[in-house]
Amino acid sequence: MPGPTLTDIARAAEVSTATVSHALNGTGRLGGATRRRVRETATALGYGIRRTAPRTRTLGIAVTTFPTAWNYTEIAYFSRVVTAATSAAHERGYALTALPAARAGDDSWHTLAVDGMLIMDSPRGDPMVTALRARGIPLVFDGAPGDPHAGDHWVDNDHEATTREVLDHLAASGARRIALQSGNGDEHYARTVTAAYTTWCAEHGADPLVVPFDVTDAEGKAFDALLRGPDRADAVYAAYDPGGRQLLAAAARLALRVPGDLRVVCASEDPGYALTRPPVTTVTLAPERTARAAVALLVDLVEGRAGPASETAQRGPVVVPAALVPRDSSRAQPAAG
Amino acid sequence: MPGPTLTDIARAAEVSTATVSHALNGTGRLGGATRRRVRETATALGYGIRRTAPRTRTLGIAVTTFPTAWNYTEIAYFSRVVTAATSAAHERGYALTALPAARAGDDSWHTLAVDGMLIMDSPRGDPMVTALRARGIPLVFDGAPGDPHAGDHWVDNDHEATTREVLDHLAASGARRIALQSGNGDEHYARTVTAAYTTWCAEHGADPLVVPFDVTDAEGKAFDALLRGPDRADAVYAAYDPGGRQLLAAAARLALRVPGDLRVVCASEDPGYALTRPPVTTVTLAPERTARAAVALLVDLVEGRAGPASETAQRGPVVVPAALVPRDSSRAQPAAG
Q1: Is ipTM beyond 0.85?
Q2: pLDDT in tens, A13-22
Q3: Based on the domain organization, do A175 and A86 belong to the same domain?
Q4: Chain B contacts of A102, Cβ < 8 Å?
């Protein structure tokens, strides 16, 4: 079954065929609303559905949590996923297109030339996912999708178990008031880590202390209130890569010793945390394993070897083990205060 | 000026318009020769020239030296260029498509949807470069192109100066018979390093000893003949990343001490060479600086900020400094034998 013609789309959208052509090709001087309406009409009519598209032998990868101009490749986790995914794609004869974060906020998804897409940390209501699903592009998620559908495929760590392991580790090291630095996005990772932390606190009769992550806060000023006073936190689990350095900066400014006054654990793939003073205990999410598993699954989907929803139960989400790498920043200490 | 129509191409290639459509879209059951002929005709007529193509906001990157199924991302230099180029592209709002090496051997270049292309280690007679030049796609080379044209832009190290620096370093460490492991491809890097070595040998009255690099020779058996007998080499400069490990393996097998019997220097970006026994002296080509300079130049070209040939003389090729990182494998020793 061929896709709709320009005439079909023009009739449905009540515009000229020239306008349709401009809207789909990104040319001309259309207003954003018209362009979007034409593309949405085209998508609704099945334009771009893969059954008629030539194979590009290209896979796409993107982080869709924040569709703004931040550079996710500066975070070691994402950089290592992209690097390993490129290698895994090449092994299978596929090119890999890494999209900038801001692309998640525009409508280029309606025409992006890929055979399949690997989406990292997809939030609820992700417009890219909606567009790619409508086009029938196979998707694999790194991190459970915000809006999972029956038949979705994803690769993830068990963030609940990992968060509990970190909190137990900090409690065993003598911490009494453990705070969490978590994300403020609506993606599975931030929600799951925060929920696991809140549950753990309730089980241990502790008040939850959550500090939102801010990538621009290099000096960790967001921790100042938390780290002062008689009830100050004596441990923090930073769920994002720069958090460990932010905490070391805050501790230095407030004259707190790590780990004597403040225990620190950070989820990070940055080998530099072995060289800080003191070296920081990290959680590694094993990005290379995740990337390789996700690409293998995506190529299976693209080439028709992984089944639709009915077979998904057997394949299930792929769970990649995370690992705690203990270093001096969370060495056992007598409890503070 | 619009590009040629399918009818124009069909007439020139003496085939039906359906055949043209199949050839350009990669569909149907055409023979390879017909497909290639139609694409070449289309390119000759100006099909795919950028003046009519929508902006994809995508840059491409590829290594074209060997158009086979080797995985260049397993070599630290290339992997780090791709990673840094991705980051630099994203900073400017561009996606980056990394193509597998084998793609250099097919004809997908005639339709690849990129605004500009970064080509690493392009050999003489590179068919991809010919196709992309015909389409008017801006190109930047990492490593001088095998067939430079007036107005070409590239970023490179000064491989002649670096090779001489390595050879002088080995001579100063007491080496008398210095061999080179170089490439057997027809790209600028291998040719320049080999020529600089041969010239240096002539200036020093030494016989050149060149061993071709073979990525599959993990045990360095290619060195066996060179490292035996009274006239054996007492130093090797390995111009490719795995060469240092191949040399350590060969030395262990032949019971040669490094650096006592054999001095080793390797061009590599692999931090693992700081941890081998002994640590290996490396030459770093500064891939991140090269990648960032190349992407900045390519985006300037794509966006019309870098001029055609007439302005090139001012911009010239961008030269990125390489650096020798001395370690134990080339520590000064009394000359052998």
Answers
A1: no
A2: 888 888 888 8
A3: no
A4: 93
